[in-house]
Design a protein that fits this description.
about 10% strand, ABC transporter transmembrane region fold, 6-stranded mixed β-sheet, about 65% helix, Rossmann fold, 10 strands
């Protein structure tokens, strides 16, 4: 397990841990040597003839204190830098990994759990790998060297010093095995509780809107109670075996003092040696006193590493072995089958082609497979059978980042980060200049609104664009797409939840965005796609109709039924 833990440490981090270990060891040994010199000085104080001899000793003692302090500073800095190295390495690895997962990963893992892993579990790794290892290794080294030295001083006293340690460690080991499963259960309950708290916090606006939120609160309280029960059960177990360990451990120290007193009385041991054992055995015992803490820290980090490893080793979207590029941007779905890890097909035998530069609309009832079509193009999921090609190249044979760089996405639910409007638009192209960002905003019909804000483009928006209307967020998203300037555009019905004023501006922006690009749009308002080059009609995972608006109306099929239903809905009134 220690080897696995060190796998998350870079070469630089390992060097820092080694430096911290050696510096802590040096500081500990210097402290022991300082104490030895003091004992020797006090024992032989009568032999010093004048102050000059003592002056040399004072200088030596001061030098040792100074060097010990320097070693402690070096050790402390090194262990903290090692911890920072672990945090940076692991979080960067997780963030890079999260981008490579299919949506299947996120449908299985709650956002709160992922958040717990990134924050709490990575912090645990930092605390143990960065800080704990160097201290533990140095404690063991110091104890080993002091133990050898003390045994050389008096083998009998050395044996007395360790006489009951095996029994104390045995008591601790028996408790450890019992505690192992309890620790895992406690950590899992804690992770579940934190995840629910995150979800509860994010859902507070919804909770306020509905007075009936007792179900989720009951679930949260149950999670808190489960964690409390697990924590109390574990605490009782720990208290029991730690108590037994402490008894035999302290008894071992008492045995050493009794043996030393008897040997002193018999004349086989001098007082200086007895004093050395009484004082230095404390340093020798230090790692044993910390065994319980070492073990609990190990269990905690072992569990944290298990969850971090679960993310780092979870299957990602398969990468192309020999990536191919394309210079054309027509899109072909050929005999595509797909299911969401069940026996039921979400899409079945889908065949169609989007000519380069054309606008294709996907329509159909909810759950018919429209969103799945776009998700497969973006490789948020991988198909089960058939192929999806861009410019004649299977998207599975393309570099994933290269594929996504050729596609702009404007979704119905826009994601904005808690940053400035300028930075949110610049996500479309990190190399864009301020002038290019402003030009993209103008094309997206959002510049005038931004310019009217007190801080203009530097205005910060809250998480997910709190404070902006749906239409304003949509136009910021469209500005991103203009800035990215990708040859393929995917639109999820972006005018379904906006007011007429915003809808007009969005339609104007989208019309400009679509020019010269291959556009795939999920449409709910059929009146917005009457001029589409082709309309694909889906029902229960199958492509049931295909053609232009007028042709599909003449056929009188599902599209005509959907059109008629929307026309009837336009005349609906509340009362």
């Amino acid at each position: 397990m220690i080897r696995k833990l060190f796998s998350v440490v870079t070469g630089k981090g390992k060097a820092l841990i080694a430096t911290a270990t050696l510096a802590f060891t040096a500081a500990g040994l210097l402290g022991a040597y300082l104490m030895y010199l003091v004992i020797d000085m006090l024992n032989n104080i009568h032999t010093y003839k004048d102050g000059r001899e003592l002056t040399g000793l004072w200088i030596a003692l001061f030098g040792i204190v100074l060097l010990k302090t320097l070693m402690a500073v070096v050790a402390d800095m090194s262990k903290h830098f090692a911890g920072f190295d672990v945090v940076l390495t692991v979080r960067k690895s997780i963030i890079n990994r999260l981008k490579q997962f299919s949506l299947g990963f996120y449908s299985k893992e709650r956002l709160g759990k992922i958040s717990t892993i990134i924050h709490k579990d990575v912090d645990n790794l930092e605390g143990v790998v960065g800080h704990f290892f160097s201290i533990m290794f140095s404690d063991i080294l110091i104890a080993l060297l002091l133990g050898i030295w003390l045994f050389m001083k008096s083998p009998w006293m050395g044996l007395a010093m360790v006489s009951l340690l095996p029994l104390a460690v045995l008591m601790l080991g028996m408790g450890f095995r019992k505690n192992l499963k309890l620790q895992e259960k406690t950590n899992d309950d804690l992770a579940d509780m934190v995840s629910l708290f995150v979800e509860y916090t994010k859902g507070i606006p919804l909770m306020k809107a509905f007075s009936e939120n007792a179900a989720f609160e009951t679930k949260l309280r149950s999670s808190i109670e489960r964690f409390g029960v697990s924590a109390r059960r574990q605490s009782k177990t720990v208290a029991g075996y730690v108590g037994r360990f402490s008894f035999f451990f302290e008894l071992s120290y008492a045995v050493m003092i009794i043996v030393g007193a008897l040997m002193l009385h018999q004349g086989s041991l001098n007082f200086e040696t007895l004093l050395i054992f009484i004082i230095f055995s404390v340093e020798f015992y230090k790692p044993f006193r910390k065994i319980e803490k070492y073990w609990l820290d190990y269990l905690q980090v072992k569990d944290s590493y298990r969850r971090v490893e679960g993310v780092l080793e979870a299957p990602t979207v398969p990468a192309a072995v020999f990536p191919r590029k394309t210079s054309a941007f027509d899109i072909t779905y050929e005999k595509v089958d797909f299911s969401y890890e069940t026996d039921e097909f979400a899409l079945k035998n889908i065949n169609f082609k989007l000519p380069q530069g054309s606008l294709t609309a996907l329509v159909g009832p909810s759950g018919s497979g429209k969103t799945t079509i776009t998700n497969l193009l973006l490789r948020f999921w991988d198909i089960g059978r058939g192929s999806i090609q861009v410019g004649g190249v299977d998207i599975r044979d393309m570099d994933y980042d290269e594929l996504l760089s050729n596609i702009s996405i404007v979704m119905q639910n826009v994601v904005l980060f808690a940053d400035s409007i300028y930075e949110n638009i610049r996500l479309g192209n990190r190399n864009a200049t301020r002038e290019q960002v402003i030009e993209a905003a103008k094309k997206a019909q959002i510049h005038d609104f931004i310019a009217g804000l007190p801080e203009g483009y530097d205005t910060r928006v809250g998480e997910n664009g709190v404070g902006l209307s749906g239409g304003q967020k949509q136009r910021i998203s469209i500005a991103r797409a203009f800035l990215k300037n990708a040859p393929i555009v995917v639109l999820d019905e972006i005018t379904s939840n906006v007011d007429p004023v915003n809808e007009t501006k969005i339609q104007k922006a989208v019309s400009a965005l679509a020019k010269g690009r291959t556009v795939l749009v999920i449409a709910h308002h059929l009146r917005t796609i009457q001029t589409a080059d082709q309309i694909l009609v889906f029902d229960q995972g199958s492509l049931v109709e295909q053609g232009a608006h007028s042709l599909l109306l003449e056929k009188g099929g599902l599209y005509a039924q959907l059109w008629k239903a929307q026309e009837v809905a336009k005349g609906w009134k509340i009362a």
